[in-house]
Amino acid sequence: MPQKPKSHTDLTRRELLGGAGALALSGIASGANAGGLGTSPATALKPAGKSKQPNVLFIISDDLNMHLNCYGHSSVHSPNIDRLASMGLRFDRAYCQYPVCGPSRSSFLTGLRPDTVQVVDGETYFRDKCPNVVSLPQHFKLNGYFTARVIKVFHDARSTPDDPKAWDVAIEPYRTKLGSEGRRQNYTPNIKGLALPPSVEAEGGDEDQVDGLGAVQAIHLLENRPDKPFFLAVGFRMPHIPWIAPKRYFDMYDPARVELPEVRQDAWDHIPRAAIGISTFNYGMDDKTRREALCAYYAAVSFMDAQVGKLLDALKRLHILDNTIIVFLSDNGWHVGEHGMWHKFTLFEESARVPLIVCAPGMKSKGKACEGLVEFVDIFPTLTDLCGLKPPDGLEGISMRPLLENPARPWKTAAFTQQARNPIMGRSIRTERWRYTEWDEGRDGVELYDEQADPHEFANLANDPEYAGRMGELQGMLRAGWRSALPKK
Question: What is the pTM of this model?
C-alpha cells in the first residue's frame, strides 16, 4: 500500500479513486519544503485584486503534430484546444529540442538542452546523468505548491523512474478490458520493427481509456485540492501509437474525405540518408491505407481534445479558471506521410515544430497568435516568471512573458533541435525564413530549406552554389549556439 502523502491529508485514497476504475496511485511524501513561497507577480498578468499565487495546469499531449483546427487544419475536430487558443496565446513557431518523447521531456522539464541534461534516447533516465538538477514540478513543490502528476509527464512512468522528487501525488490509470476491445486495423502488416501498430475502435467509453480515466482523476484532484496553489501536470497518451479511442471518435472521420499531405516519390533522393526517419517509404502503404491511418490518428487527437475540454470545464465550474495558468503542448511533432514518413525522429518541420498554447490570467494577448521563434526550454523560466518564483540557476531558455504582453515584439533569431542517428548527431536551426541542418557536422550530409518559398521542405538547396553565402551564415549561427540567438536587450 503506497504511503499516504504527509502534506495533503485532506486528499484521501477513496476521494482520488472513487468511481474511476482501477488505478495505480503513488502518493509521495513531500517532506519539508526547501524554500518558502515565492513573491507574487507584480505586473499586469497578475489577476486584478488577487494576491493568491496562480495555479498551474500543465497539459502534455504525446506525439501531437500541428493538425489542429486552431492551427489551420479545419478537417480536424479539436473544439476544446481551439477554445483554449481563444483564451490564450497560440505560438505558431514553437520548437522542441529533441523530437522524441524521453529526450524532449527531459529537456523541457529541466529547462536544459539535450546535450546538457545528457538524454538523447528513450532509455536514459535524466537523474542518472544529472542527479542534482531541479525539475520544473520539483521547483514548484519546493516553493510551496501542491504538485500532482496524472498519466505520463516525464518519460513513461511505467518503465522509468519518473521523478519522485517532483510530486506530492502521482496517478497512473490503466485501460479497462472493454477499452481494448473493438475493431482493429493493421496498416503495416509487412513491416518488421518500428512501424504502425494496429488501431482499435474501442467498444467502451472515454473512461475505459487511460486518458479518459486520467481526466476524471485530474478533476478529482482539482475538487479535493489542498488550500495552497497547485501545479497539476496531466500527460495524455494520445495520439501516441497505438491509436486507441472509443468508436465515436473514429466515426467523426471519413477516409474518402481526408486530405493526404503532398508527398513526392523522389523525396528521399535529394536528402542525406541520415535525414530519413523510417525504413520504407510510407511503410509501403497505398493511398487508401494512408487515408485510413490518418483518420485513426485524427480520431486519437479528437479523443484527447475531449479530455482537455473536461479539464477546462472543471476549472470554470470550480471558479479557479481566473487564477490558473494553463500550458498546452505536445512533446514533439509527428509525420503523417510528409516526406514519405510516419513517426517522429527527424529534423524536418513536421517533427520539430509543435503546438504550444499559454493562457495566463490578465494576459494582454488573449486569442492572438505569436510568430516569434520559441523553444521548449523556454517553458520552465516562463512559468517561474509568471508565478513570481526565482528560477534555478543554469536554465538554458528564457521567459516568454514579454511575448504574452506583446506577441509581435522582436524575439529569438533561431530555434535549435537535434536528433541522433547512432553513432552520429544531427543538428538543425530554424530561423524566420530558413532551416539549416547538419549531420555529423556536415560529414554525413547537409540540408537547407527556404521556409518562405518552400514551407513543406521539398527542395534541399544545400548543393546549389547560389546559396553558398547563406549556407555559411547559417552554419555560423548553428556553431555559435543558442546564446547567440537570444533577443537583444
Answer: 0.91
